Amino acid sequence: MIGRADLIIPAPLPPPLVLDASVRALLRQWPTAIVVDGDDKQVYKKYRDIPFQALSEVMVFKNQRFLEQWRRDGATAENRNSMINLICVNNELTIVVDDPSDPMIVALVETVKSVLRQPIFNIAA
Questions:
Q1: For labelling alongside 102, which of 3, 18, 29, 112 has CA 20 to 30 A away?
Q2: pTM
Q3: Exposed, middle or buried: residue 72 (CB in 10 Å: 0-12, 13-18, 19+)?
């Protein structure tokens, strides 16, 4: 078993917009990432296929190999920091990671935060 950390950031936008922007930010660093819905039932290998309007939670796996390892073995040391869980509810985005001090995770989380700070996402509707 590996650790878990929940990083919570303000997200005063509709969940579909927050998840969409967050997944796009992660795809910059993990271009071969696989996205799975929060119920672990639907796998999206292409960004254009993700129905953000119907989701409030997704898991982003670094690549197909890590998705398969997670499904087969669960949370193990070998899978450490290879999946990021994004949950957007109540005007907050929770980013669930294994080790928030890992430099790769720090960079990924900062990329997401940076995208969500963009002026276009902070215009009142």
A1: 18
A2: 0.90
A3: exposed
CB atoms within 10 A of CB 37: 17
Candidates 63, 62, 60, 68; CA nearest to 20 is 60
| Residue 43 CB partners (closer than 8 Å, separation 6+) | 34, 35, 36, 67
107 burial level (CB within 10 Å; 0-12, 13-18, 19+): exposed
Q: Report angle CA 92, 43, 38 to the nearest 5 degrees.
A: 30
Q: How far apart are CA 66 and CA 75, in angstroms?
A: 11
Domain boundaries, the chain: 5-122
Six token digits for residue 66: 């890590």
Structure tokens at 102: 């890992």
Separation of alpha carbons 118 and 115, rounded Å: 5
